[in-house]
Design brief:
Nucleotidyltransferase, domain 5; 6-stranded mixed β-sheet; 5-stranded mixed β-sheet; 16 helices; 16 strands; about 40% helix; elongated; binds cytidine-5'-triphosphate; Ectonucleoside triphosphate diphosphohydrolase 1
Length: about 500
C-alpha cells in the first residue's frame, strides 16, 4: 500500500503541478482556437434589400434584390429573390390616363411590402427606370410623359421604402447596365475574366454592348462607356437602336407594306390563314413610323398572312439602312460598330422568342435554324392555334415575324456569321437572377461594385484557424519540453525507493 503511494509520488504525471500545467495548457489551446474561430465567424446573416421597377414599353416588372448586410462591397452576392410582372401594358400606354399608370403598380408594390422584412423597409432603396416606351412618349408628347412620371412618383411615395426617384434611362445606360448585370452574375468582373457581350431586345429598342480589343473609344466616342471595376478598366462599346425593339420593328415592316394606303395587305411574316382588321391610326401612332403615314388611307386595313420566311426576311431587311457609313465599319443606319468579339448573352425578347421557337441551341448551324423557322412560318395559322392553345394570341401571331426579325438583326444588322452565331447564348437568367439592366443599375447606384479590388485577408478563414491551432500546440509542446530539467528521472520500471 505504502509502496503504491510512493510510486504515485515519484511518477511525474501524478504530481499536482504537472496536472495543473497540463490543464492550463489545454485550456489555453482551446481558448486560443476558440478566439480564432469566433473572430472570423460570419455574423448571423442579416440581409439588405433593393427594389427596381423596369418600366418597359410593353410591360413593367418589379425585381427585389437581396445581399448579406455585412458584404456590401463584395460581388457575386447580390441575388434576385423575387420578381413580379405588373398587370396591364407599360406605363407609356397610360398617356391619356396617367393616374392609372401609378395605380397599375400597386399590386406588385404590395407584394414587395410583404417580401421585404418590415424592419428593413425604410432603408430599402426603390428605383423606377423607364426605357424606350417612355423615351418615345417623351419625344411624341413630353407633357404626357411628365404627367405619367408624376403619377408614378406619387404612387411609389405611398410605400414605406426609400424611394430614389423615377427616370428615363438613356439607351446607353440601358445597354451598359445590361452588360454589367450579365458579367456580374457570371462573376467575370471581380475575377477580371474575359467579359460576355450583351444583346438585349425589348419591345421598342434594342441594345448591343461588348468589349472589343480594337475599340478604344476614339472612333465614335458616343458609343463608348468606361468602367473601372474591381481594379480593372473596361472600354465598353454600346449602342441602343430606338425603334428597333421588336414591336416597333413590326410597325416599321407594316408601315413599309401600307405605304400606299391599301385596304388589305398580304404579309409574309404572318401565317397563312391569319386575318385581322387593324386601324391605320393605331399603326402610325408612334414616332418610329408617324412621318410615313399615307396621305389618303382608309381608317382600317385587313392584315392577312401568307407565311413565307424568305419574303419576310426581305421586308425586314428593308427597315435597316446599309447605304451610308462614315466610319471604318458600321452595323446599320450609319452607326459605328467594331468587330464582334467574345461570347454574347442574348436576353429579354431574344430569349422569349427563340425559346418559344425551340431555337435556343446555337450549336445548330445557322442555315438549319433558318430552315426550321421557314418551316414554322409556313405552318397554317389554324394549325398553329391548335398546337399552342395556351399561348397569348398576340405573341403567337407574331412569332414568325419575331424569329425572322431576330435572325435578320443578328446577321444583317450586327454582322454575326455562321461562324460567330454559336458564340451567342440565348439566356433568361443567370444563377436565378434575370438578365437585364435592372441589377446593374442598382449595383451602380448603391456603389456596390467598387472601382478597386477590395482588400481581402491574406489567409482564408480555415487556413487562419489551422495555423493558430498548430502554433498553439507547438508552443505547448515546447513549454513541456523546456520543463525537462525539472522532470524527475523516469525509467520504464517504476522506481521503488
Ligand atoms: N412570352 C413572351 C413575352 C414577351 N414577348 C415580347 O417580348 C417583348 C418584351 O420584351 P421586354 O424586354 O420585356 O421589353 P420592354 O422592356 O417592354 O421594352 P423596352 O425595353 O424596349 O422598353 C415584347 O415585344 C413582347 O411582345 C414575347 O414575344 N413572348
Amino acid at each position: 500500500m505504502s509502496t503504491q503511494r510512493e510510486m504515485k509520488e515519484k511518477n511525474p504525471w501524478h504530481r499536482p503541478v504537472t496536472i495543473i500545467i497540463t490543464v492550463i495548457g489545454v485550456i489555453a489551446i482551446v481558448a486560443l482556437v476558440t478566439v480564432a474561430v469566433l473572430q472570423n465567424w460570419p455574423l448571423s446573416q442579416k440581409y439588405k434589400y433593393g427594389i427596381v421597377l423596369d418600366a418597359g414599353s410593353s410591360h413593367t416588372a418589379l425585381y427585389i434584390y437581396e445581399w448579406p448586410a455585412e458584404k456590401d462591397n463584395n460581388t457575386g452576392r447580390v441575388e434576385q429573390t423575387h420578381s413580379c410582372t405588373v398587370k396591364g401594358p407599360g406605363i407609356s400606354s397610360y398617356a391619356s390616363a396617367p393616374q392609372k399608370a401609378g395605380e397599375s403598380l400597386t399590386e406588385c408594390m404590395q407584394e414587395a411590402v410583404h417580401r421585404v422584412p418590415k424592419k428593413r423597409h425604410h432603408e430599402t432603396p426603390l428605383y423606377l427606370g423607364a426605357t424606350a416606351g417612355m423615351r418615345l412618349l417623351n419625344v411624341q408628347n413630353s407633357s404626357a410623359s411628365n404627367k405619367v412620371f408624376q403619377a408614378v412618383d406619387e404612387a411609389l411615395r405611398e410605400f414605406p421604402f426609400a424611394f430614389q426617384g423615377a427616370r428615363i434611362l438613356s439607351g446607353q445606360e440601358e445597354g451598359a447596365f445590361g452588360w454589367v448585370t450579365v458579367n456580374y452574375l457570371d462573376d467575370r468582373l471581380r475575377q477580371g475574366l474575359e467579359t460576355n457581350g450583351a444583346l438585349d431586345l425589348g419591345g421598342a429598342s434594342t441594345q448591343i454592348s461588348f468589349v472589343s480589343s480594337n475599340y478604344d473609344g476614339s472612333e465614335s466616342p458616343s458609343n463608348s462607356v468606361n468602367f473601372r471595376l474591381y481594379g480593372n478598366d473596361y472600354n465598353l462599346y454600346t449602342h441602343s437602336f430606338l425603334c428597333y425593339g421588336k414591336d416597333q420593328a413590326l410597325r416599321m415592316t407594316l408601315a413599309q407594306q401600307t405605304r400606299s394606303g391599301p385596304t388589305s395587305i398580304l404579309d409574309p411574316c404572318f401565317h397563312d390563314g391569319y386575318s385581322e382588321t387593324k386601324e391605320y391610326s393605331k399603326l402610325y401612332d408612334s414616332p418610329c413610323v408617324s412621318d410615313r403615314k399615307p396621305q389618303e388611307a382608309p381608317s382600317t386595313y385587313i392584315h392577312t398572312g401568307k407565311g413565307n420566311f424568305h419574303q419576310c426576311q426581305e421586308i425586314v431587311k428593308s427597315v435597316f439602312n446599309f447605304t451610308h457609313c462614315q466610319y471604318s465599319q458600321c452595323s446599320f443606319n450609319g452607326i459605328f460598330q467594331p468587330h464582334l468579339q467574345g461570347p454574347f448573352g442574348a436576353f429579354s425578347a431574344y430569349y422569349f422568342v427563340m425559346n418559344f421557337l425551340k431555337l435556343t441551341n446555337t450549336s445548330i448551324p445557322l442555315e438549319q435554324v433558318k430552315e426550321k423557322l421557314a418551316h414554322y412560318c409556313a405552318t397554317p395559322w389554324t394549325q398553329i392555334q391548335k398546337q399552342y392553345p395556351n399561348v397569348k394570341h398576340k405573341y403567337l401571331a407574331e412569332y414568325c415575324f419575331s424569329g425572322t426579325y431576330i435572325l435578320t438583326l443578328l446577321t444583317e444588322g450586327y454582322n454575326f456569321t455562321s461562324e460567330s452565331y454559336p458564340n451567342i447564348k440565348f439566356i433568361k437568367e443567370i444563377k436565378g437572377s434575370d438578365a437585364g439592366w435592372t441589377l446593374g443599375y442598382m449595383l451602380n447606384l448603391t456603389n456596390m461594385i467598387p472601382a478597386e479590388a477590395p482588400d481581402s485577408p491574406p489567409l482564408p478563414h480555415a487556413g487562419y484557424i489551422s495555423i493558430v491551432t498548430v502554433i498553439a500546440v507547438l508552443l505547448f509542446v515546447l513549454f513541456i519540453l523546456s520543463m525537462r530539467p525539472f522532470w524527475p528521472q523516469c525509467s520504464k520500471e517504476p522506481q521503488i525507493i
